[in-house]
Amino acid sequence: MKNYKLIIADDHKMFLDGLLSILASKKEYEIILTANSGKNVAKYLDINNDNESIDLVITDVNMPDLNGIELNRHIKNKHPKVKTLVVSMLHDAQTVQTLTQDNVDGYVPKNAEKAELIHAITTILDGEKYFSQSIKDVYLKGMFSNEKSLHESLSKREKEVLKLIAQEYTTQEIADKLFLSKHTIESYRKNLISKLEVRNLAGLTKHALKLGLVDE
Amino acid sequence: MKNYKLIIADDHKMFLDGLLSILASKKEYEIILTANSGKNVAKYLDINNDNESIDLVITDVNMPDLNGIELNRHIKNKHPKVKTLVVSMLHDAQTVQTLTQDNVDGYVPKNAEKAELIHAITTILDGEKYFSQSIKDVYLKGMFSNEKSLHESLSKREKEVLKLIAQEYTTQEIADKLFLSKHTIESYRKNLISKLEVRNLAGLTKHALKLGLVDE
DNA sequence: TGTACGCCCCCTGTTTACAGTGAGTTTTAA
DNA sequence: TTAAAACTCACTGTAAACAGGGGGCGTACA
Hints:
By secondary structure, the first copy, chain A, is α/β, with parallel strands linked by helices.
């Protein structure tokens, strides 16, 4: 029986402890590292490249410093041999889609059964991918709704401006902040109003919140 | 050594499994029931009143059907002998305050250490209360911040206007809708901006969302 | 009975947002 | 390499929001 080396990243220590308890029953899984942020995992992998051969990183999505999405991206770029399994309680269409685009190996919600988690891990370690049904549902729903198209239709700069608008900055202030002309910002605001099909700052702000560009 | 009867309610099965693993090491704790919603716990307690004597209910806050706040309230009303410990990852000032007002026996965040959880449980079973430092911080911050008072200081009419503002109506439109003068609405908007300490429609909209006056 | 508060209205300004139109430059991707 | 998309800037208006005043009217409550 082969031995596998695992890393777990979750900023909820209690959950982490729980996960450890669950995996403790399986002797073929060796937990090399547990971390409460993605940054420590990335650092570990970068430093111990080639020496250790980590098989799987299990990670939450919401974490300080480096979240699960960024961690997965880092792993897939710098350590493509390492498998990744996301275990999260959030599973909005956007997150799922981003992760699958970034070639994540699996996604299981935190309300999954213990058995399903084990199954996901073994499946992934066998070289296949594993996604819970609820995750697949979310993914498909996201594909056919227009929610996503709104997100995608916004460019980087537009999102940046939208964020600042929702943070109550005036056009002039945003222009100063971004070292752009006031006219440019006005153009962006106009386009945003048009694209998002709203009438004014209030509507823009609601979308900014929905897109998670600002807190609260 | 006394034996204690526990109930655990959490809709994240994986977390629940983890909690069970943690508590399995302590033989004096007998897990009578686990549930993924507060409703089942309330039902169990109501039916088995007097027969079983549950000592402690450990519960999450966010659950379907009956959430942790409602469950705690139910327990404290109908089964005052049963202790309650909230284990949650959300701990906003409002939630903490409501729960303490409802006489919850303890509150530990999910990112707490395993040891702290055990400590909380033993403390509560000894008849005392236990709140993590981070929870106390949140509580105190909530006490001395103006967050809550801001909300409460809004009159009925102000909330009505605020709602319409967040729904992207202009001053004139709101005036027409409410059969008021445009000047009146402008006064309200001005007062709202002043009271809520924001700068413009964007800030007002965020507050309207926070107050739940509008959807999304 | 007076004073606090919610509600309603008005005036004068200044600033900002909104609407329409047009156009050059750079980046990206087919 | 060319076309599309993103990014940038400009001009002209009109409408609305923002800022700072003031005041009257009714009710509740101490």
